[in-house]
Design a protein that fits this description.
mainly alpha, about 70 residues, about 65% helix
């Protein structure tokens, strides 16, 4: 994955006023995992990408920088 995902995840979360804890609870992961994703230290699984895309109502392509 690339920095685009890290940046877009953080931007989407901030635009929607969703904290890391709230997002983590909604996705069934820990707050630490959200932090790792946002800092580019870990990549989400495909199932997590799907959940993130559904949560923010965007495409996976958008999340990973393949679409604007």
């Amino acid at each position: 994955m690339n920095n685009v995902f890290c940046e877009r995840l953080k931007e989407l979360r901030q635009e929607k006023n969703v904290g890391q804890v709230k997002l983590a609870e909604s996705l069934g992961v820990s707050k630490g995992v959200i932090s790792l994703w946002e800092n580019g230290l870990r990549e989400p699984s495909m199932s997590s990408l799907i959940l993130i895309a559904r949560f923010f109502e965007v495409s996976i392509d958008y999340l990973v920088g393949m679409a604007d």
